[in-house]
Amino acid sequence: ALMMSLPALFNIGLLLFLVMFIYAIFGMSQFAYVKKESGIDDMFNFETFPNSMICLFQITTSGGWNYLLFPILNKEPDCDPKKVHPGSSVEGDCGNPSVGIF
């Protein structure tokens, strides 16, 4: 029975990886410069692709996803919308509440 279900498990795993890949790219574009606090730190952030995948794995397993959500939902006065990031055209370290829930 296990040998018969392996192809289906592979397909489901590949589909899960594809969905996580898309959300990792989306998270990097929306939340790469979110202020580091609570669950967002040097390892759990959306600055790089591997870190984005780690965050999404944490969210998928429901292991402390709320600590990642709180900084993403930040808006003024808890963050600085005028903060300049060298080497990027992005300004601010605020999250995006409407996209963060998505």
Automatic annotation (TrEMBL):
Q: Which residues form the Ion transport domain?
A: 1-76
Q: Which InterPro entries match?
A: Ion_trans_dom, VGCC_Ca_Na
Give one GO term, molecular function aspect: voltage-gated sodium channel activity
Q: What is its main location?
A: membrane
Compartments it resides in: Cell membrane
Bilayer topology reads: Multi-pass membrane protein
The protein's UniProt keywords, in alphabetical order, are: Cell membrane, Disulfide bond, Ion channel, Ion transport, Membrane, Repeat, Sodium, Sodium channel, Sodium transport, Transmembrane, Transmembrane helix, Transport, Voltage-gated channel
Q: Name one GO cellular component term.
A: voltage-gated sodium channel complex
GO BP terms: membrane depolarization during action potential; neuronal action potential
Q: Where are the transmembrane segments?
A: 6-26
Q: List, alphabetically, the Gene3D superfamilies matched.
A: 1.10.287.70
Q: Which superkingdom?
A: Eukaryota
Which PANTHER family does the record match to this protein?
SODIUM CHANNEL PROTEIN TYPE 2 SUBUNIT ALPHA, VOLTAGE-GATED CATION CHANNEL CALCIUM AND SODIUM
Please identify the protein, giving its name as recorded: Sodium channel protein type 9 subunit alpha
**Lineage of the organism:** Eukaryota, Metazoa, Chordata, Craniata, Vertebrata
Q: Which gene encodes it?
A: SCN9A
